[in-house]
Amino acid sequence: MIFRLGDQKPPDARRITDDVIQRFEHVYEVDPEMMRDFPQQELPAWDTQRIVAARWDHLDWMHDHFADDVLKLGLDSETMPDEEET
Amino acid sequence: MSVAFKSAVDDGVIDELRAITGDPDRVLPNLSSRVNRTRVPAPFPVHRWAEFMPDVALLPTSAEEVSEILKLANRLRIPVVPRAGGTGLSDGAVPLRGGICVDVKLMNKIHEIDLTDRTVTVGPGINMLKLNEELRPHGVFYPDDPASYPCSLVGGRIGTGGWSLLGSRFGHTRDLVISMQVVLPTGEIVEIGEGGGRKLRKSSTGLTLKQLFTGHQGTLGITTEATLELVPRPELEFSAFFAFDDYMKAYRTTGALTRSGLATLAGVVLFDEWKLRYLRRDDEAYIPQPDSVRAVVAVALYGTRAEVEPAAQRVMELGRVDGGKYLGDEISQGDWASRHDRYATPLHGRTRDGQVAPMSWHCEDAALNYSALPAVREEWHAIVERYSERYGIFDDWGMFAYTSGPYKPWADYLVEIDVGIWEQRLDDDTWAGWVACKREIAEVALKHGGSITACHGATREGDAELVPTEMGSSWEVVKRIKAALDPNNIMNPGKQMLDEAYE
Questions:
Q1: Comparing C-alpha atoms, which of B4, B184, B18 is closest to residue B76?
Q2: CA spacing 20 to 30 A to A56: which of A31, B208, B386, B479?
């Protein structure tokens, strides 16, 4: 793997809600305008992705710890289509 | 009567403690050891830290050492505060009058796994996660599952009378402890259980003392060994989260689920509108949800595949009857898994003008019946709003109600209002405001026929003063028991208004 500094700059943000922006897919961040007193630490892209991946690893570990298997229904959220209709 | 009100730890006491342990490394009078054993995660008057430090911390390794420590403390009237994981959401492990902190973390051994009579016997310093890692190859599980699961210890769970996420299915800490060894304040080592047998779940001999020594917040002694329940390791887990556009629909659905009769039901949680507002602000699962999502009901099942699969179908039916919408597998499973470890969540809140600030998490809990939930919710939020507006360093993070009756999920709830507190801004004025806020919250719980705490413990300044009121006519009995077992009030003095036993 080659480390290229330019690749580590987070992409430009897009607004999700009045409070939240998104720079990486599925990663929500507080709007920097709301962090004037306590600015967000700057992270390279790889570190943000590492933290997110570690969170999923942690949740998978918890499932495995508490039961042999998890029953999945194969169903998506029933709330999100409402949003698309509006 | 002479009682322990002021610490008398001096060099002579330190020398005696070193002689008891025979190991100077387990007697810790140094500043960092004391500072680190002062507070717990509950909000704390950080500007008065030094007032609450123990004078010395000890790390005993046996009941005999604990016994000798308590005999010494009793002789010299030195306060003693037991401490396990120090993860409590009340102030049970916070010394109010200095003295000796007995830290049980080195008493963390598994003494016996009995797969025939289905028990495991451990020291109080073992963590449930680590215990279950050892139990897994045997196909058994110790199902005590607090939100501090990865970091709290068995001894603290017993001392605080802990509550488990899986309590409706498997019971809470007091239901899962079969017997224990306790060192009394005067130093005697006694076996406490149901009657005489160390592994018996039910007896009718004598008085049932086990519950007395569960949830006393370190005021009656120190548990040095516990024999715990083992259940079959669950084959299957199922969790489902349902969204509602109205709190009362979610409330009715919660009631229907808890009355379903499903034996695998481990817990049902009802999140209110304020909680959804908080989650929509800062939680990845709820940020993208439409505005119509105003309340959520979460359900978890554990058991064999043969039980859980049909029960899950019933849950899906009941969850949708009153307009509930399934939030999908990803949110249901991810959010449920995260509930075993809420202490891993970095915390921040918002000031009144919307700016982010680092905040600690206070969860004021109460035990309430189902009928009281809607009204208490309105009153609690109004109280927090009033204090937030006045002081500007509190942030309402919403409420939840969680089934609390062991094996009987239909009527009792652990109810919490979560409040962020900007601790760095605490001073005498704002701390007094916070204490007054907590007291008002607790008074509402009592007014509605509840208890001021379902699991955290009534040791916090603000609500502890209400313990005699809640105990009512039984308060005299409580005081007599305390005075009889702890004649010099050395065990965690100042907690739960038990000083009144010595007046």
A1: B4
A2: A31
Bridging pattern class, strands B80-83 and B100-103 = parallel
The interface residues of chain A toward chain B in range 17-46, judged by CB-CB distance below 8 A, are 17, 19-20, 26-28, 30, 34-38
Q: How far is B450 from chain A (nearest CA, A)?
A: 32
Q: Which residues of chain A make contact with B145, given a CB cutoff of 8 A? A: 66
- Cα R_g (chain B), whole angstroms: 23
pTM of the entire predicted model: 0.94
Nearest by Cα to B269 from B244, B289, B248, B250:
B250
Q: Which amino acid is at B199?
A: K
The gap between the terminal CA atoms of chain A, to the nearest Å, is 44
Distances (CA, A) of B319 to B270, B289, B329: 12, 18, 14
Q: Which residues of B touch A21 (CB under 8 A)?
A: none
Position of tokens 């992409």?
Answer: A11
Q: Looking at CA atoms only, how far is residue A85 from chain B in angstroms?
A: 11
Sheet-wide strand order for B177-183: B110-114, B119-122, B222-229, B177-183, B189-192
- Facing residue for A77 by CB, picked from B133, B327, B341: B327
The answer to whether residue A53 neighbours chain B at the CB level (below 8 Å) is no
- Give the HSE-up count for residue B117: Cα atoms under 13 Å, Cβ half-sphere: 13
CB proximity list for B245: less than 8 A, separation 6 or greater: B292, B293, B294, B295, B323
Q: Which of A34, A66, A82 sits opposite B234 (nearest CB)?
A: A66
* Record: contact B325-A68, CB cut-off 8 A: no
Q: Residue-wise pLDDT tens for chain B (503 aa)?
A: 455 555 679 999 999 999 999 999 999 999 999 999 999 988 899 999 999 999 999 999 999 999 999 999 999 999 999 999 999 988 999 999 999 999 999 999 999 999 999 999 999 999 999 999 999 999 999 999 999 999 999 999 999 999 999 999 999 999 999 999 999 999 999 999 998 889 999 999 999 899 999 999 999 999 999 999 999 999 999 999 999 999 999 999 999 999 999 999 999 999 999 999 999 998 889 999 999 999 999 999 999 999 999 999 999 999 999 999 999 999 999 999 999 988 766 688 999 999 999 998 888 999 999 999 999 999 999 999 999 999 999 999 999 999 999 999 999 999 999 999 999 999 999 999 999 999 999 999 999 999 999 988 888 888 899 999 999 999 999 999 999 999 999 999 999 999 999 99
Residues of B in contact with A16 (CB under 8 A): 287-288
Interchain pair B329, A78: CB under 8 A = no
**What is the distance in angstroms between the Cα of A41 and the nearest Cα belonging to chain B?**
13
